[in-house]
Specification:
about 0% strand; elongated; mainly alpha
């Protein structure tokens, strides 16, 4: 169990760092998507522009509206506050243009789940063994 604990900690941290690196590398894709939205609708979504100035700290928050629009149906509880034009726009995009959003959040959530599992292993097996 000690070995598993020692492996999961750096793996979880590494996956989370990978998600931030991936997000930084795909920032241009985000800008292209926003520019296309602006061309089609003539305005920039307030939900996204508010978070863009947050830099790396809010890198996931600025794309959460895109992800929610991709994952949930239009009248779902989770997308009730999303701009209807933004929802429609994202749903109409080809998969190759939006797949980076799902990958970005998959990496982040995977890293978090690995760290949670790591903590559970430590709490249940290792901490009590001493």
């Amino acid at each position: 169990m000690h070995t598993l604990f020692m492996l999961l900690t750096p793996v979880g941290i590494l996956v989370i760092f990978m998600s931030f690196i991936y997000s930084t590398l795909k920032n241009n894709q985000h800008k292209i998507l926003c520019a296309d939205f602006y061309k089609e609708y003539g305005y920039y979504p307030d939900d996204i522009s508010a978070y863009e100035r947050g830099g790396l700290l809010l890198t996931f928050q600025k794309d959460i509206h895109f992800l929610l629009a991709l994952l949930f149906k239009e009248n779902s509880f989770f997308v009730r506050n999303i701009n209807k034009d933004l929802y429609k726009f994202i749903r109409e995009q080809p998969k190759q243009k939006t797949s980076w959003i799902k990958i970005k959040f998959f990496l982040l959530i995977s890293g978090a789940l690995i760290l949670i599992a790591d903590y559970a292993i430590f709490s249940l097996f290792i901490k009590n063994a001493h």
